[in-house]
Give the backbone structure.
Amino acid sequence: MKKLETQSITQLLEIIPNHPGLRVSQFSDGGEEFSTILSTLCLEREHEYQLNVLDESFLIKAKELYGNNSLSTVKPIKWNQRRYSSLAKQYDVLFVTATIPEEHRKFFAKSIHSHIKSAGHLVLFLEKNNQKNSDEWWSFLEEYLFVAISSLDIFKNYDILIAKKMHGWGGK
C-alpha cells in the first residue's frame, strides 16, 4: 500500500460512529499506517476490530501489532475463499485497503454484502485517477444492492468509494 496522509485517515475514520460495541473489519495486503490508526481508534472506542490479511509476510507482523487485545482479531484470508468469515458476524464498517485482483472483484462485491450489517458501510481504496476501475466497482456495488455510492478525493494516492448496504432495497 502506498503512503497515506495521517490527517486524511483521521478524516475518513469519522465515518465510524462513536458508540461502543460496533464491529469494524479491514481487508489488507500490507501497510501499517491505516491499520495502526484504525486499530487504535477501535480499542479506544471499544469497537471489535477484525483485520483480514491477504499477504503472508504481513500476517506475522499484523498478529504482533494488532492481535494482542481482546477486541482485535487478525486472520489470514484468500480472495477465492467461499466465505470471508467463518462466523455469522456482520460488520458496521468494512474497509478494503487491499488491491483486489480483477478476476475476484465481482465475487468479492457479491460475497461481502452478507458480511455488512444493514445500513453499514463498505469503504474501498482504489487506484487514484483510474476511472475504468472506479466505474467497474460502482457497477458491481449497484448490482449487489449497495446504495448511496459516492467517491471521496481525500488521499494523494487513492480514490475512495463508499457504499451503504440497505436491507430490502433493490427487489432481487
